[in-house]
Amino acid sequence: MDENGPIEQPIDGVLDLHTFQPREVKDLVQDYLAACQSGASLQVRIIHGKGIGNLRRTVHALLAKHPEVVSYALDHPQFGAGADGCDVEAEAVARPTRKWPALRRGP
């Protein structure tokens, strides 16, 4: 966030964490995944950078606990990435289902 307020982040399936403070990551990752799911984007790339690995460990811990994350893995250099991010697959957002009243059989 800058002094003018929040910065708009496009929901395009790629979240680059380089411009965010570490304290913002937890809420940001969860909110971004939710926004991607509501837009039907179930394949997400989160760029956390290489560094010493603190941000990577934080992101992976969040993904491991997220109930709608099906899988995640580090980028692989073979696919043009340099292990500076991870690819995430999420479940589709559960749609509310209609609850029917319980039916009782005769006496």
Overall pLDDT level = 76
Strand order of the largest sheet: 1-2-4-3
* Total tally of structural domains: 1
Tally of separate helices: 2
What are the secondary-structure elements, in order, as H or E? EHEHEE
CATH topology term: Ribosomal Protein S8, Chain: A, domain 1
Helix content: 10-25%
| Helical/strand content category | alpha+beta
If classified by CATH, what would the architecture be? 2-Layer Sandwich
Our estimate of the beta-strand percent is: 15-25%
Poorly predicted runs? 95-107
Number of strands: 4
Termini Cα gap: 64 Å
Principal-axis shape equals: globular
* Radius of gyration, whole Å: 18 Å
Largest sheet properties: 4 strands, mixed
CATH class wording: Alpha Beta
Can you characterise this structure?
By secondary structure, this protein is an alpha+beta fold. The chain has a single domain, classed as Ribosomal Protein S8, Chain: A, domain 1 (2-Layer Sandwich). The chain is 24% helix and 19% strand. Strands 1-2-4-3 form a four-stranded mixed sheet, covered by helices on one side. The model is unreliable at 95-107 (pLDDT under 50).
